[in-house]
Amino acid sequence: MWKDFKAFALKGNVIDLAIAVVIGGAFGAIINSLVKDLIMPLIGVLTGGINFSDKKIVLSPAIKDATGKILKPENDLTYGVFIQTLINFVIIALSIFLVIRLISNISRKKEVEPVTPLPPVPTPSEKLLTEIRDLLKK
Predict the structure, then answer these.
(1) 44: CB partners within 8 A, 6+ apart
(2) What pLDDT, on the 0 to 100 scale, is given for residue 1?
(3) Which of 20, 35, 104, 120 has the highest count of CB atoms within 10 angstroms of its CB?
């Protein structure tokens, strides 16, 4: 069983997939930062200072005692965070689409431009044999 697992784990496809997952995670972190730190503040400015991460619908308010200690936490729907996550998804999906489209265009160009080999240059003996053949035909 260990031998089979080792053969599976050391295949090129598995290693490529592991590398892709690590790079994808880093790419996701970059996109999250882009949306959270750049895009959402700009959208907030355009919408009059709205901070989407604070947007929520309170289903039941928090219950506190006389000292201010929370007995039951607030129950809410944080739709602003959901909007940020949707924007993350759209940007990641668009980025992946553009990369795949670029790769497919490059691979199509390689297929369209086939290399045609030049005809071989005849050797002097082949030229002489061709002349003899032509003379014999006459």
Answers:
(1) 50, 51, 52
(2) 78
(3) 35
